[in-house]
Amino acid sequence: MSLLEPALSAAALVILGTVIGYMPTRRIIAMREAHHELKRGSASFLRATAGWAVIAFWVMALWFGGTVVGDWVRLGDLDAALARSWLRLRILLEIAAAIGSD
Amino acid sequence: MPVAQSDLQCTACGGQCAYSPQREALVCDSCGTAHEIVVDPDIDATAETDHDALVPERPVSESGHAHRCETCGGTVTIAGAALSDRCSYCNGPLVRTLEDAGYPAMALIPFQLEAPYAAESARAWAARRVAAPGGLGASVAAGRIATLYAPFFTFDSTDLIDYWGTYTTKRGKRTVRRKKTGKFETDFDDLLVPASPHITPLIRDGVLHDFDPGTLRPYGPAYLAGFPAERHHLTVEEGLTAKKRDKDVLIRNRIKTHARRNLSNIGYRASTSGVRYRRILLPVYILHYEHGGKAYKIVTCGLHGKTFGERPFSHGKLFAYAAVISLAAVMAGIVYTLLGLP
């Protein structure tokens, strides 16, 4: 199997993640500034540090995409890689649901 | 309290005096003589007023010292000689206005830092920004620093909270959702609420970390000499309404602490009693700067120098950081499966 297709998929994933990641990255910076500069326990501090779910979703989605590409490289079969990813997806969705309800 | 111009004149040479944070006294602009500010020892600056919603408040008109901004409409009072003809909030031109109706401040904390320190602090704050656009430092350096006594309320209250919510827990292999209810009493002490639309709660929590009511002084024109002050224009009821959003966040956080669970879908009923308040003025420096054709401000507390403000982002740097994080996350996923992990 050629490594070109998984490599191109990984590159496309990184590009898509970069475009989607503009706002989460801005959020990371705002949270870092809030942690260092806002009064601990204040309303603005609690508000600013509460929005980390969107960052977690973004990173988890990219990591999941990476695992599919990794399995594709290892197994040499995209269908087998997708089939193996279902269990991971279920676990990730459970984590996402827990984060979402927080 | 109306400002008596004669109180601000130097007894030695008749010149105009201004408050000096460094010397904590009125200092003559002409001869440099320092005049101690005498405070009536019978006035307790830390005293709070009980709020009675049934008693209407009546605004007091003041004339002669009020200036209105032609850009943002904000009104400031200037005791003594005006140091600037620009608005402290938005840098717009100020014009003298005939009358300004507001509510008298009860106390204030005088400036403890000089403007050059605040300007330096604002520049240092801007220099520490991550993903800042190129030239931000130069834009901030070209900015204009304004002084201001900004109006704030302090509120005390006791709240009886009756809450409910849900949390998830493991039951064998299953995740189940459970309900939790509870009740507790909580106090809010000296909750600072901006009484001006120009100071946002975010800026307040960035610059006012250590508010100590013990440092309050009775309101007096001598402290305002040379520094613009915004009068209180909000009623206490309006202040309480402005407080609601902040208090909601704090109550929800206290509910989570009380429940000792990571509660979600939180609802509550609060019964508030014993509302006491102060109308105070707190000193801030506001550095106005422009970048990319947009106006921003950086606020420095006139007490301890804590600084926080508004800043632009560099789109290119944000995309670059996003690319690095995306690459790291995708690579972590690839390596995870290449190691044969499930």
Give a structural overview.
The complex is a heterodimer of chains A (102) and B (342). Chain A has 102 residues and is mainly α. Chain A is built from five helices and no strands. In chain A, helix 1 (4-20) packs antiparallel against helix 4 (53-75) and helix 4 runs antiparallel to helix 5. The radius of gyration of chain A is 17 Å and the shape is elongated. Chain A starts with a helix and ends with a helix. The relative contact order of chain A is 0.12. Chain B has 342 residues and is of the alpha+beta class. Helix content of chain B is 23%, strand content 37%. Chain B has six helices and 17 strands. In chain B, strands 4, 10, 11, 12, 13, 15, 16 and 17 form an eight-stranded mixed sheet that branches. In chain B, strands 8-6-7-14 form a four-stranded antiparallel sheet, with no helix packed on it. In chain B, a hairpin with a 5-residue loop joins strand 16 and strand 17 (307-309). At the A-B interface, helix 1, helix 2, helix 3, helix 4 and helix 5 of A face helix 3, helix 5 and helix 6 of B.
Keywords:
heterodimer, A: 102 residues, mainly alpha, 0% strand, B: 342 residues, eight-stranded mixed sheet
Chain-wise SSE layout:
The complex is a heterodimer of chains A (102) and B (342).
Chain A: H1 4-20, H2 22-37, H3 43-48, H4 53-75, H5 78-100
Chain B: E1 17-20, E2 25-28, E3 34-35, E4 49-50, E5 60-63, E6 66-69, E7 75-78, E8 94-96, E9 99-102, E10 107-108, H1 115-127, H2 136-141, E11 144-171, E12 174-194, H3 201-207, E13 217-218, H4 221-224, E14 228-229, H5 236-259, E15 264-291, E16 294-301, E17 307-309, H6 315-338
